[in-house]
Structures are given as structure tokens and as C-alpha cells.
Amino acid sequence: MIDLRSDTVTRPSTAMLAAMTRAQTGDDVWGDDPTVVLLQERVAEETGKKAGLFFPSGTQSNLAALMAHCGRGDEYLVGQAAHTYKFEGGGAAVLGSIQPQPLDNAADGTIPLERIAAAIKPVDDHFARTRLLALENTIGGTVLPQDYVAEATAFAHGRGLATHLDGARLFNAAVASGHPPAALAQGFDSVSICFSKGLGAPVGSVLVGSEALIGEARRWRKTLGGGMRQAGVLAAACLYALDHHVARLADDHAHAARLAAGLAQIDGVTVVSQATNMVFARFAPEDRAPLAAWLTDRGILTGAGEQTRLVTHLDVDADDIDTVVAAVRAYFAR
Ligand SMILES: *Cc1c(COP(=O)(O)O)cnc(C)c1O
Predict the structure, then answer these.
(1) Where does the Aromatic amino acid beta-eliminating lyase/threonine aldolase domain lie (predicted)?
(2) Mean pLDDT of the 54-68 span
């Protein structure tokens, strides 16, 4: 199968599985797992932060960060299109008693500063207390402009807000922009990074920030059920990914560009955008379901929504891209 539905579908390679079986372990709830400790320290160092914390998922890492920054009745400012707001089951409100204030994202994924300024509530008993600005990079595959990140985080800090980055695909942003992860993390009090996306690990996210912030997040991780025991077997996969799967993200980006260029040649396909490892394409409503079925019959998995997101990853190579383009061309030529 050529699976373009997401970069979460990658399977651990034989070499990654071997690294997992070699991992030294201990009880990580007690802080005893040397492989988890190593991963946390390494990610903290690569992102220029003081401390790191391993989580089973990015959803839990983001939520623990929000809960570490905000208390009951506090508010966080977040993009309308952001994963933390839109795709995490409303966890901030449901489990954190934190009020989200969603703000419309501009087309480039930023939230204009005047929208942020206008949403910060006055200190008054009528209002939730605005505590945090959360951004996402990459967002919909797009790398946030670094000038904007510097301005927005400085602005937020100037207004007394903390800053959180959902950097699920921070390494895609780093490879695509040429900025090191530490530069992309600068200005943020906390950053959450996923290892189960383009980096190709089966499980795992790491949250980084100050010692104090990570100490708070560790408490909430336990509360949320994310305290894992011999988690070194999982952390070993993430360490393997840091060693072997970062530079190669450039291949995924090249494959996405090749896919976008190929699809753009086909009558019946509108390529809306391509950035890093994602392509967004549109098809006429009457083609959506039949095309998805046609592709499935040929071993190609895609979504079939109003706008189809096609994601490249380490289990998709250049030949696969050409196979996909040929299959779409054949559908429209039938
Ligand atoms: C995948 C993802 C997450 C976290 O997802 P999990 O599936 O819980 O690991 C968070 N933010 C973004 C932008 C993501 O793509």
C-alpha cells in the first residue's frame, strides 16, 4: 500500500526495532529510565531549553503544557485551525478548565498581532484571565515566518502572557527553513515535538521548557495517566529517529513537491498548496469518492474530503509518487 493519509502511518523499521530491544530501561515514573532521561536531555539541548519530558502522545504533551501554564478559569489564545484547539477533543476545556479563545489564522498560519492584542481580556471579574498564546509550526505543513514568531512571542511576553509552541513537526520546519530547532523554539516557554509523525517512531512526544514548567507538566502527566514505566523501549525509537530520520525529512519535502508538480499537470485536479511534506488538492465533488475508490483499488490510500490532504513520509519513495500521479492521471483519462 502507498498510504498518503498521514505521516503517522509509518511502521518502525527493522533497525529501529533493534534499537528498541537494546534499550536500557527503568521505572520512568520514578525517573529511573536512563533511555528516557537521555532522550529528554537530548531534545532539551537541541531546542535550547533546560528540561524535557517524554509523553505517550502529542495531544497529552500539549494538554499537560497548557495545564502547566494555565489554571482553572484562565484562558489561552489559539488559532482557529490549531491542532490543540480543533483536533484534541477540546482537552484544554474538558480536562484543564481552561477557556480557549480561538482566533482566525491568516493564510500563512500566523495569527495577526492586532487580533491577539484585541483578544487579551482586561483584568476584571467578568473575564477569564488571558495567560497564554499558543502557536503551531508547521501548521498545515506551512513553516511559520521566523520574523513573525519573534514578533508574536515578544509581543505576548510584553503583555504578560506565556508562550507555547505545538511543534509536532518542528523538525520538518527546521529542515525546510534551514533554521536549527533551537532557533525555531526561541521565544517559546514550552515546545511540544512529535516523534510519531515524519520522524517515524511508533509512539512518543517530548515537551521542553524550563525546569519549573517541566516540573509542573510532570505532575499533570501523572494526573492524565501518562506516567509510563519501562518507557525506554519507546524512547530508544525516538533517539534512533533523531540519529537517522531528521536530515531525510528533506526527501519527504522533495516527494511532496514532486507529487504537487505531477498532479498540477492533470485536468481535473486543482493543487491548492504544497509545503514541507503536505499537498492539498481539490477534485470536483462527483470525482471525490470514485477517485478515492479507484486509488484504493490500486493500493493507494488518500482522504476523500472537500480538500484532500496528501502527506509524504519515510515509507513513500519517489517511485511511489510517480505511481500515484500515474493512477490519478489514468482516472481522469478513463
Ligand atoms: C499529530 C499532532 C499532534 C499530536 O497528535 P498525537 O496524535 O496525539 O500525537 C499535535 N499537533 C499537531 C499539529 C499534530 O499534527
Answers:
(1) 3-283
(2) 98
